[in-house]
């Protein structure tokens, strides 16, 4: 009897240990039937299947283990998936300039502690996370995060450390930090990118403040940037968002590998979104980005979006977009593998109808 009790106790302890460590496969697939006018030198219309109009398709593996006492370990590997063609991975444009990689979206290992979360590897900058969160839907079709030509809101950094604090009562928010090590021999600040941000809540208004900077291969300042955003949700669940980013280019002679900017830039987005039924919401957004001293390098987008939740993991969408390029700009309405680039100064109109499934 005693042996049976001991055996049950051992099995229970072992099972609890196994359950404490979890590994999960996750992801999302997103594709839309898309048509965009104003493509190429002859102002033609391109129609076809675009991947990731609402959010990039991806798959990944993540795991965590509770170590007790408020400590834990975790990891994540995440790859881009082009479900229109079956291609995976892609070009890594972060500071190492390593080129095409498979785990291009995320490759981190980290620890959770009572003082916050620390992770090491490749991940989004906090600028990129905040710019997407404070956009209307953070989409790849006509969304603000597609407009990173003149501001640093689209970066992932490798060889980096990331920190997220616990919730701070005085802010009703958190503090964030990231730093990319440039790994330049004899120059600890060469090819580095550093960012710090804080989120807060005041009288029902959520917001953020962010600052980031990059240094070139010799350690000279390449650029610095600040951002601010605000979001408010009304009693009838209408969400109003606004954000502004300003980048100052410091030195064209010493540019950060893969992350450099040669001119001052600024950008902002304004949006409103609300429910029209229990499972459907509609929104309107306006986005602008430009080189501060060059009107010819200016981009403006207007976006109308309707999202319908079939379930917690299945979302259907319809999005319309209008793009106005400055005389020297040739931005695209959709940024993910749908080759619709116009001629310089070419404007675009388009729509996409699609489906996103999370797993």
Main traits of this protein?
359 residues; mainly beta; 16-stranded antiparallel β-barrel; 2 helices; 20 strands; 55% strand; disordered N terminus
Identify the overall geometry: globular
H/E series: HEEEEEEEEEHEEEEEEEEEEE
Radius of gyration: 22 Å
Oligomeric nature of the chains = single chain
- Taking pLDDT < 50 over at least 5 consecutive residues as the criterion, the unreliable ranges are 1-19
> How far is the N terminus from the C terminus?
45 Å
Describe this structure in words.
The structure is a single chain. With 359 residues, the chain is mainly beta. It is 8% helix and 55% strand. The chain is built from two helices and 20 strands. The chain has helices at residues 2-20, 126-133; strands spanning 21-39, 44-51, 58-68, 71-82, 87-88, 90-92, 99-101, 106-113, 116-124, 156-164, 175-180, 193-202, 205-215, 221-233, 239-249, 265-275, 280-291, 294-309, 314-325, 348-358. The strands form two sheets. A 16-stranded antiparallel beta barrel has the order 1-3-4-8-9-10-11-12-13-14-15-16-17-18-19-20. A hairpin with a 6-residue loop joins strand 6 and strand 7 (99-101). The chain is globular, with a radius of gyration of 22 Å. 39% of the residues are buried.
Quick description:
With 359 residues, the protein is mostly beta strands. Helix content is 8%, strand content 55%.
């Amino acid at each position: 009897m005693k042996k049976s009790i001991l055996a049950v106790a051992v099995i229970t302890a072992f099972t609890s240990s196994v359950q404490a460590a979890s590994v999960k496969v996750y992801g999302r697939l997103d594709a839309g039937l898309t048509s965009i006018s104003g493509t190429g030198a002859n102002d033609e219309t391109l129609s076809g299947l675009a991947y990731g109009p609402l959010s990039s398709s991806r798959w990944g593996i993540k795991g965590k283990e509770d170590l007790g006492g408020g400590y834990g370990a975790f990891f994540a590997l995440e790859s881009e998936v082009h479900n229109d063609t079956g291609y995976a991975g892609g070009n890594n444009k972060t500071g190492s300039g390593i080129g095409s990689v498979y785990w291009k979206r995320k490759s981190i290992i980290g620890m959770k502690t009572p003082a916050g979360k620390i992770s090491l590897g490749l991940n989004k900058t906090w600028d990129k996370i905040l710019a997407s969160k404070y956009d209307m839907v953070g989409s790849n079709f006509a969304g603000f995060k597609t407009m990173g030509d003149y501001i640093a809101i689209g970066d992932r950094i490798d060889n980096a450390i990331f920190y997220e604090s616990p919730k701070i009562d005085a802010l009703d928010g958190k503090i964030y930090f990231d730093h990319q090590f440039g790994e330049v021999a004899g120059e600890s600040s060469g090819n580095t990118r550093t960012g710090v941000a804080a989120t807060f809540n005041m009288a029902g208004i959520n917001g953020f403040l962010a600052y980031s900077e990059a240094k070139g291969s010799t350690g000279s300042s390449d650029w610095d940037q600040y951002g601010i955003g605000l979001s408010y949700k009304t009693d009838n669940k209408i969400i109003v968002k606004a954000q502004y980013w300003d980048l100052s280019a410091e030195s064209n002679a010493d540019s950060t590998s893969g992350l450099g900017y040669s001119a001052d830039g600024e950008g902002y987005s304004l949006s409103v979104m609300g429910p029209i039924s229990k499972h459907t919401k509609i929104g309107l957004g306006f986005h602008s980005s430009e080189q501060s001293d060059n009107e010819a390098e200016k981009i403006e987008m207007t976006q109308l979006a309707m999202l319908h939740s079939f379930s917690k993991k299945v979302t259907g969408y319809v999005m319309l977009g209008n793009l106005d390029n400055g005389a020297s700009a040739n931005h695209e309405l959709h940024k993910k593998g749908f080759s619709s680039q116009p001629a310089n100064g070419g404007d675009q109109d388009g729509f996409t109808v699609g489906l996103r499934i999370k797993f």
